[in-house]
Description:
Mean pLDDT: 95
CATH topology of the largest domain: Metallo-beta-lactamase, Chain A
CATH class of the largest domain: Alpha Beta
Number of strands: 16
Order of helices and strands: EEEEHEHHEEEEEEHEEHEHHEE
Oligomer: single chain
Distance between the termini: 28 Å
Helix content: 25-40%
Structural class: alpha+beta
Largest sheet: 7 strands, mixed
Low-confidence stretches: 1-5
Amino acid sequence: MSASAAVAFLTEPVPPRGEATQVWPGIRRIVAANPGPMTYHGTNTYLIDQPEGVVVVDPGPDDAAHVHDILRASGRTVRAILLSHTHVDHLGAVAALRSATGAPVAAWHAPSRADFVPDQALSDGDLVAGCRVLHTPGHAADHVCFAYEAGDGAAVLFSADHVMSWSSSIVSPPDGDMAAYFASLRRLLGRDDALYLPGHGPPLPAPRGLVEELLAHRIAREAAVLAALDGLTEAEVPAITGLVYAAAPASVRPMAERNVLAHLLKLLAEDVVTRTGAAWRRA
Length: 283
């Protein structure tokens, strides 16, 4: 979702297109040319340079030019392709990159898209291409982060769309689940990573503070949803969203409604609210 004044998000200039820039020793980033209100400057594709070859994390959108840029920047054998989740801005280039390199694609063992089957089905805690798999559902049911030991004792987390440096994430039911998102944020608070490399936006150093802010932000949103219901007695999602996201531009209102619905479904499961058709009220 759009940035909030309550959260210390980062910004960056439009990155150079088609170029792989170093973001950590042995890790480079290429930003796809798919900018937008939900993708910032574009999807980040990461290249991990290893002795056995290059590991590609999140190939990005279905864009032949971006695939060409990945292949040119790799310069040698691509040994593995890691996919954080099956949203199209991350999955789109998978087929073309797999075809061009023959590299196996590793992703969560229960992908949210029925038309995608990974070559290597991942489970929580697996080690793949030097990365530890962390299942972090919430933004998507099949979302994983990859924790990479950087060699000096510091861990770099490819946080994908679970925690981004420039904005909070969309949680859109049914694939998105707000209770799971809360739990996944709390899971990351149990870690001590040196850097997050998100799916969109710049690298995030010392990430713990932002994770704490994101969790507090979601808790505050939930309180705002309940306050809106108190004021309206009974209401449908658009009316609740109009109060909770009163300052948000119209362009993000549809996604704001998905976030509000996700909060309401979480509260429904907790017996805090009730639902009759499209109308919601306090329990």
